[in-house]
Amino acid sequence: MTGAARWVIVAAGGTLAPDALRALLRPGDRLVAADGGADLLAAAGAHPEVVIGDLDSISPGLAQSLETGADGISLIRHPVRKDATDAELALAYTLGEADARAEILMVGVFGDRIDHGIGIIGVLAGLPEATRRRITLSDGRQCAYVVGTRRVLYGRPGDTVSVLPMTPRVAGVTLEGFSFPLRDGTLTWGNTLGVSNHLEGPEGRITIRGRGVALVIHTLDTA
């Protein structure tokens, strides 16, 4: 525990039901909506402190309320023609505002737009500070992390964990607490070596001692 408030970015691409989104939120969370993510929050009975985007995927009624300031929610509006997605803009805002120790949770990044999800993963893989910050992408059942040095995963025995290279080569990879352990191994593009591992117990440790960045995807065993 760091004592710093957690920041939650809600994007418009998710398929989470209101109850599922409410289950991810905690009292005291700092909520940021990327455009239509504000509608997902409203359906869950929550309100962001700021909405960021071009308002092209938000409901007309909520857009009008934001533009008039009736709800007391800050609006940072961007043009439709721009060089970044609303989710990337919301992430950039949050990285600038959040305490360096704060956890950042991104919800609604994955959905029916694979390009948006891969785009955000690419942004995180290219940001040196992203591997030092506690950033999680989640759709409720799956969590993804960009890892450059180490990460401890907590879950249940049998949870599926995949470790994928985001750079052509990730060297010095050690996996502890998994069904298929690895010590100082190398992950490269062109194979599926790191796919579908499993937690042996309540936690697993991933350490990268060499160069490279990995994407870790943790799928919760709900059986």
Structure description:
The protein contains 5 helices and 14 strands. It has 223 residues and is α/β, with parallel strands linked by helices. A 10-stranded mixed β-sheet has the order 4-3-2-1-5-6-7-14-9-12, sandwiched between helices. Helix 2 links the parallel strand 2 (30-34) and strand 3. It is elongated, with a radius of gyration of 18 Å. The two termini are 29 Å apart. The model has no long low-confidence stretch (mean pLDDT 90).
Structural domain count: 2
Radius of gyration: 18 Å
Structure classification: alpha/beta
Classified in CATH, the superfamily of the largest domain is Thiamin pyrophosphokinase, catalytic domain
Largest β-sheet summary: 10 strands, mixed
Spatial ordering of strands, largest sheet:
4-3-2-1-5-6-7-14-9-12
**Poorly predicted runs:** none
Topology as H/E string? Answer: EHEHEHEHEHEEEEEEEEE
Give the overall silhouette.
Answer: elongated
Give me some keywords for this one.
223 residues, alpha/beta, Rossmann fold, four-stranded antiparallel sheet, 5 helices, 33% strand
